[in-house]
Description:
- The structure is a single chain.
- The chain is mainly α.
- Helices cover 55% and strands 7% of the residues.
- The protein contains 18 helices and 5 strands.
- The strands form 2 sheets. It has a 3-stranded mixed beta sheet, sandwiched between helices.
- Helix 5 (94-103) packs parallel to helix 7, helix 12 runs antiparallel to helix 13 (241-256) and helix 14 (296-312) runs antiparallel to helix 15.
- The radius of gyration is 38 Å and the shape is elongated.
Amino acid sequence: LLPKVKYSPAEARYKVYIFDEAHMLTPAASNSLLKTLEEPPEHVYFILATTEPHKMLPTILSRCQRFDFRPIPVGLMVEALNKIAEAEQIQIDGPALAAIAQAADGAMRNAESIFDQVIAYTEGPINLDTVNAVLGTTEAELLSQAAEVISTGDVPGVFAAVDELVTGGKDLTQFLADLTGYFENLLRISLGDQPPAWLQLSEARQEQMRRQAQHIGAAGLLEIIDSLADAHQQIRRSTQPALLVELTLCGAAYKHSSGPPTAKAATPPPPQPAPATAPTPEKQPTPAIPAGPLTLEAVQARWPQLNDQLKRDGHMPIGAIIMAGQPAALDGQRLVVAFDDQHQFHYNRIKERYGEVVEKALEKVVGQRLNIQCRLGATNEIAAEEQAAAETQSPPPPPTPAASETDQAIQEAVDQTLQLFEGSKEITDQ
């Protein structure tokens, strides 16, 4: 390049050399270029483009006029896109423009490219649903619904929301990214900020977001954002993305269902005499598992420990679901768990999705691997049915006890004596 720099351009007035990712120049190349940069010919311009200016040699930076390009704010991109729409006579509403600008990630070129895709995708007026269909982003209503079930601690609602996403063919990776952005806006609201004007939220939606932000609190929102970010990194490697999303949202719902903690009073109330209460009985230790075959009573005694074990295994929401059922019968390695009719949701979840997880945790509690069979109905009724079914089965005949070695020896001696003296057996009462 350097030998060509000194020659004047053949057609234009100037030569312009653009170095893309200029920080990749080796030190030797940078030093070779340095003298030309110090005294460039009048007809030459150098443009050094880089995304990492801190890696450039200070001697080169000191000889350049520096321009730092930053992401374009979403509000400015919305204004620019609106001017394009007016010039091209394209009907598009404000929320749709805001969604395009937000997806552009600060680059106007990206925004215009997305705008072209949306125009080619549809005919007639463009709304937010059209943009979401092109970008694959999650509808605002689904994001609001997910935040609502988290803020209210509605665990069954979490599963219902994820089921709606899966059946609707939504990209769960994109959903986590969009939900993270939604909670980021909630965090800003909790800190006293207002939703960005470019979001163009209705008054009802703004009021809902304020209520959600106040209920969870700033500290809780920070934890949720952190957990969503971790899940967003894990989901690309996960073989069960829906389960990962369910557990992440359930964990957030359990932690933050009661809202932010109440501040304690600065001055404690005056002490009052405590009412006389009966002494608290000591907690009885869990009975040990008896030696030999496992019994239903032993499983029932350790059933509450299953919830703790699932928490230790990282499956706290599953622990809450399986605790809705109770062991009703044990037949060998088959454990029947009964769920009341009002717990049909919990019954379906364990039966269809989480049975193996519960079996592995229960094995750590009772020391044996049991095959869990879920049944819907009252515990006592199911136990009676299982007992009746077991009684109708004819038990196998008991094995004939084998004679001991001593009895066999005596019998052989008697037979030999009778043969020797030609005697016969005689049974008397004496």
